[in-house]
Amino acid sequence: MVLNPENYHSGEKTYSSLTDLYQIRLFHEDFENRLLLKKEEENGRRQELTASLFDHQLPVSDNRELYQKLFLDSKQMTIQKQPEPPAQTGMPSWIVPGAGILITGFVFLVLWYHQSRRNRRKRELFNQTLEFQSNDV
User: Fold this and answer.
1) DSSP state, 72?
2) Which residue in 58, 34, 60 sits closest to 48, CA to CA?
3) Phi, psi of 128 (to 5 degrees)
4) Residue 5 DSSP label
5) pTM over 0.85
């Protein structure tokens, strides 16, 4: 492939793709046939590899014992033990929510008591002010 830089600086404002400029047949039948052959080769290699690994057909080599240990020997399977559950604390599960409810209730009662006490004092002060004003007149 020969690149021609003059095509870029020709001054023409027409658009043409690089594949058209350099006569690369990207969407031609030959290109598509090559892609199809390449995919078929890859699928064939993948099938051969799958067959050799899972159908116990190993290539003859010095590493045959290694292949047997990795893929064919099922005696070396290990069983992992489940982790032990955490120790029981002896405290029932309802204690924490119950304590939260009691504390919330206590806080509500204290706030209610202070609010009612404040309102009662305001009424007493207002009544005293009225009595004082009525005595002065």
Assistant:
1) I
2) 58
3) -65, -40
4) G
5) no
CB burial of 91-100 (b: ≥16 within 10 Å; e: otherwise) equals eeeeeeeeee
Q: 105 exposed, middle or buried (CB, 10 Å; 0-12, 13-18, 19+)? A: exposed
The predicted-structure confidence for 55-114, as pLDDT tens digits, reads as follows: 655 555 566 666 666 665 555 556 677 888 777 777 788 899 999 999 999 999 999 999
* Residue 27, CB-side half-sphere exposure with 13 Å CA sphere: 3
DSSP state of 52: H
Coil, strand, or helix at residue 50? helix
Contacts of 69 (CB under 8 A, 6+ apart): 76
- 51 Cβ partners below 8 Å, 6+ apart? 57
